[in-house]
UniProtKB/TrEMBL annotation:
Organism: Cohnella fermenti
Any coiled-coil regions, as ranges: none
A molecular-function term among this protein's GO annotations: ATP hydrolysis activity
SMART domains recorded: AAA (SM00382)
ABC transporter domain: residues covered: 2-224
Keywords linked to the UniProt accession: ATP-binding, Nucleotide-binding, Transport
InterPro entries: AAA+_ATPase, ABC_transporter-like_ATP-bd, ABC_Transporter_VariousFunc, P-loop_NTPase
Taxon lineage: Bacteria, Bacillati, Bacillota, Bacilli, Bacillales
PROSITE patterns the record matches: ABC_TRANSPORTER_2 (PS50893)
Protein name, UniProt field: ABC transporter ATP-binding protein
Length: 229
């Protein structure tokens, strides 16, 4: 599991994460939910070691994050970080050369699934198509966990549906997924656990099915209750 224990982070003097504690399990989809500026992207970057933490610990399967994190966890940022002039085929080749756990067959399957053209250049992709290619780059790594920052941002309904379909497919399989999204209503049927972040602190963590059956509430209901209170 990816485990954060009392993780704190500050930008200059401002505390952005305050003793954030939660765990994202393998085989589960955990959704980090919060209003703009709550600290969601900072949490994901901290897990990847892309931003330092100023307190607490982050462990993956019981070990502190470190050099191996990139092999264990695929990070899919909210933008496609491929040079605009690069063809998709070349970007895939680069990934294959760089990542020892790159799964070429899965990459081909994902390219087919999303109907992407290998000859296209990254800079010419529409926003939705770039988001799909971004997912290919992340999901084709044989990692144990997948972290996604806003995979649905600015994407049309049908593309969102096909992206959501991937979550429940073999392409994700038994890996652990930790994602942030503002489109909670659309994917709440896929989420196992929700972590509500408010002003850099965890306001509530819950199992979605439990809240549905015991309290008769949707994730969006709880989110409104907690975050808009
Ligand atoms: N490079 C930076 N320098 C200073 N402050 C920053 C920087 N990056 C983020 N912040 C601040 O940290 C806080 C948390 O930002 P973060 O991007 O993690 O929020 P978020 O929950 O992902 O927001 P959103 O939903 O808008 O993407 C915000 O108040 C933001 O202004």
């Amino acid at each position: 599991m990816i485990e954060l224990i009392r993780v704190s982070h500050r930008y200059l003097c401002r505390k952005v994460l305050k003793e954030v504690t939660f765990a994202a399990e393998k085989g589960q989809i955990t959704c980090l939910i919060g209003l703009n500026g709550a600290g969601k992207s900072t949490v994901l970057k901290a897990i990847m070691g892309l931003t330092p933490i100023h307190g607490g610990t982050i462990q993956i399967d019981g070990k502190p994050i470190g050099r191996d994190t990139y092999e264990q966890v695929s990070y899919i940022p909210d933008h496609l970080a491929v040079p605009p002039s690069m063809k998709l085929s070349d970007a895939l080749q680069f990934m294959e050369d760089f990542y020892s756990r790159w799964n070429k067959d899965r990459a081909s399957e994902l390219m087919r699934f999303f109907g992407l053209d290998y000859r296209e250049r990254a800079g010419r992709l529409s926003k939705g198509t770039a988001a799909k290619f971004n997912l290919v780059l992340g999901l084709a790594q044989d990692s144990d966990y997948i972290i996604m920052d806003e995979p649905f941002a600015g994407i049309d309904l049908f593309s969102r549906e096909s992206i959501a379909e991937v979550f429940s497919s073999e392409l994700v399989g038994s890996r652990g997924v930790l994602l942030t999204t503002h489109e909670v209503g659309e994917i709440e049927h896929l989420i196992d656990q929700a972590v509500l972040l408010r002003d850099g602190t965890v306001a509530r963590t819950f199992e979605c099915e439990q809240v549905r059956s015991e309290e008769g509430k949707s994730v969006v209901d709880v989110m409104k209750e907690v975050l808009l209170a």
